[in-house]
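Section 3.1: Structural characterization of target chains.
Under the original work plan, the team committed to producing a structural model for every single-chain target entering the pipeline before any wet-lab resources were allocated. The record below documents one such target. The sequence was received from the expression subgroup and is listed exactly as submitted; it comprises 357 residues.
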Amino acid sequence: MAGLTLSGIRKAFGPVEVLKGIDLDVADGEFIVFVGPSGCGKSTLLRVIAGLEQASAGTIAIDGVDVTAMRASDRGLAMVFQSYALYPHMSVYRNIAFALENMGLPRAEIEARVMRAATMLRLTDYLDRKPGALSGGQRQRVAIGRAVVRDPRIFLFDEPLSNLDAELRVATRKELASLHAEIGGTMIYVTHDQVEAMTLANRIVVLNAGRIEQVGTPLELYNRPANRFVAGFIGSPRMNFIPGRIGADGTIGHGAAATPLSGVDTGAAPAGAEISIGIRPEHVEIVPDRQADSSVSVQIVEQLGGESYLYGLLPDGTALTLRCANESPVRRGETVFVRFQRTRLHLFDAAGAALTR
């Protein structure tokens, strides 16, 4: 396995610059996940690493060796695509073995590698089948097996679960986590699904408009987002944002209620500064009127059994989402009183940068 260093990576398609200077170090054995909205450049960055796209500027090094100008086939990487890309006329065994046969490996070694991957991915009962006779999850496991047998320096995954239904996504996600634990390989994974990112990654790279917004462990990004973009992207449902202002006495005034928020670290923000107050749905509590920071007019209630989501409006019209444990007795049209957990508040300046972390 191997480590990876990206230095000043840029990629333009004609006049459109998709990657705008990416610097990143990936340690040997890490599971790194690229996340971000559609069009942020995450798949392009993966293809540049793979050698399927040529960087317009910058360097790519694997274990300290510059591979920027090296052909994709010579980099020792294996990529798993969203579309599976299996040969429909070949059996599962042949699909997994095909690259090894092209490498001219001895038949015994090919057999051993294929059986090891098939056992690891629970495909031994399907080796004689064609891809058309497999489920989506089984096809994806074959695509992963084809990468595993090559014993690559780095595994690259480009949204491999996006074509699966919800149940299969969860099951295959667990299999990927188990695979990484078993083989200890360096893995770089692209997804737009932040739940996948949170559950799989050692570290997450949040991309936006061709730039890295923040790199950190899942809990670092959840608890200490560097800016409003990261705060709103990581976490499900997304973080609530309430307009506010720093008072002369250090309290925070907000349109949700006349009573300012006290006991909150406002960092170096000056009095009178316009800010955004961030609070996650799970950190908003329903309380008696006398303990409340604000009232919420409930518009929608989602009962999921183990938890409930309330979607409502604050008095100033700002939308607010609450997550409640178990079932909620609240009904649409009711008004509830809420309190924001003080230690869980996030403050952002007018440019979106975090005031405290």
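The mean pLDDT is 91.
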